[in-house]
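Late entry, DLL complex.
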Amino acid sequence: MNYQYWNEKMETLPRPELEAYQLSQLKSTVDRALRTTFYKDTFIKAGIRSSDDIKSLADLQRIPFTTKHDLREGFPYGFLSIPLDDVVRLHASSGTTGIPTTIYFSAADLKRWAGFVARCIYGTGCTKSDVFQNMITYGLFTGGLGFHAGGEEIGMLVIPSGAGNTTRQFRLMQDFGTTVVHATPSFLLHVEAKMKEEGISRESLKLKKAFAGAEPYSEDTRRRIEALLHIDVYNSYGLSEMNGPGVAFECQHKDGLHLWEDGYIAEIVNPETLEPLPDGEVGELVITCLCREATTLLRYRTRDLSAFYTEPCPCGRTHRRLRRITGRTDDMLIINGVNLFPSQIEEVIMGIREVGNNYLIVVEKEGVMDRLTVKTEVGADIFMDDTRPLNALKEKIRKTLQASITINPRVELHENGSLPVSEGKAVRVQDKRPRDV
Ligand code: DLL
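Prediction complete; structure with ligand written out below:
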């Protein structure tokens, strides 16, 4: 395979040098943290007075974890480590409580972030000759401007189309010969369904690749998008607290996501005990940001579940790979006492050929019991008025799900294109059970 590196020196830095670099960056991050109102207090309690107290990477363990709750408590400037005058941009994600978590960037931070995203894009084989249509939300969400800057850094022609409006997306693809797109996996599935509906032939498009991320999806979903659109799909992971996209990305092997360890220190911990887990074991991903001067965040508990690969990657990059993120610790549903991640359902149903591209999980109370309903669309080639094959399909889905998740779900089949689609991250779960107050 022909590998291309955007920043060969950093991407292939031997581990001892990479770790020495991390240590020096960690030290400056600790010094910056001491300038924030949040860490000043917590560091003093932890006995850290300056970066001189950090002698090796192992000393990271002395630093307390930071949570989303801390970020909200520190709103708006508790994590800022440079004068506000030197801040040139903010991004924010508004959570369910309404208090946004806000991340500030200096001009140098934006430049570094663009470099990491460029590294991701270039590593998939893209060049400045590609035409890149960024079909994701712009604005406070980091996916739009983050990928936009990465594409421009490489010198690609970037089309800032934003999310939604498939008719206009097809038009742009045809007019400008789009070769690469970026979207959530759920929007890519929707695009494919709309292509059929609008009679757009695959041959009229020059598409080769897609970057898909911002929400969990299964390997079967990736394969489905690849087969339907005849493209290569690369998994892209990131979060606003760590700048946005550009934290971890698949290389041409599409087997695990390289986490850029010169920009981030990642740990996998047991989400209950918070003890570190050995490579290969699934746990909560905790990240320290080394590549940003405006907002300092150390040992941030992402709530995302993943594991480190133990083997190095044949592409030659020395940065460790993460397994596909299967969900979040706070995504877990408990149904009549059985723990269930929505990704377990997706894994099953996306492997069934007759199932369409969209689905919804509904949990309700029936008397004292929880009731799980899985609503899935059927493929475009399946007729809704032919009940015999539909009943057989329903039974097949129910049985396969039950064998895999040990819960007997109710299955509802819906016409292709009839379940709600969101332009941003897909909303896959409706938990209608009354909340205990
Ligand atoms: O979703 C940043 C991003 C934009 C990533 C574009 C990739 C592409 P947030 O809105 O803060 O930021 O959401 C971050 O989304 O903690 C994960 O739970 C989830 N997530 C992001 N990428 C993936 C992925 C952006 N590839 C949260 N697989 C994260 C699974 C993902 N989950």
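Residues 115 and 340 are 38 Å apart (CA to CA). Will revisit in the morning.
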